[in-house]
Amino acid sequence: MAAERVEVVWDAIALHTNVGIATRKRPEIAMISIGSGMDFAGKDIQQIPSENLEEILTAFPRAGFKQDAVDNILSLCRTKPMSVLMHPFAEVGRRHIPDFPVPTVEDLLHAAPFDE
User: Fold this and answer.
1) Is the C or the N end of the chain the one with fewer CB within 10 Å?
2) Helix (H, G, I), strand (E, B), or coil: what is residue 115?
3) Could you read off the pLDDT of 55-87 as tens digits, one per residue?
């Protein structure tokens, strides 16, 4: 695969949870972000005509998607907790894992080594 195409795929994966940046990039990257938001949380799902949505969900049933997603997020939080630093997944870790070791954004701010 050409290096340019690899970069597009990498950017699409890296930015899929950041719609504000992704939608300012190439159309392929923007569409991955918009589509993942629809798939994950139903964001703007009303933009898909109901008959099309029904066809999509028949072809690709969600079959436990929500619990699988939470389980995968928690697995990441347990195995690589600092990888979710300043990421929304950290909130899932804090909710479900006692003594979750990842600091909040506020914790990081207050720990900055500056006198005020």
Assistant:
1) C
2) coil
3) 999 999 999 999 999 999 999 999 999 999 999
Provide the token pair at 71. 């389980």
Give the DSSP per-residue string, the chain: --HHHHHHHHHHHHHTT-HHHHTTS-HHHHHHHHHHHHHHH-TTGGGS-HHHHHHHHHHS--TTHHHHHHHHHHHHHHH-GGGGTTSTHHHHHHHHSTT--PPPHHHHHHHSS---
Note the pTM of the prediction, 2 decimals: 0.81
Residue 17 burial (10 A CB sphere; 0-12, 13-18, 19+): middle
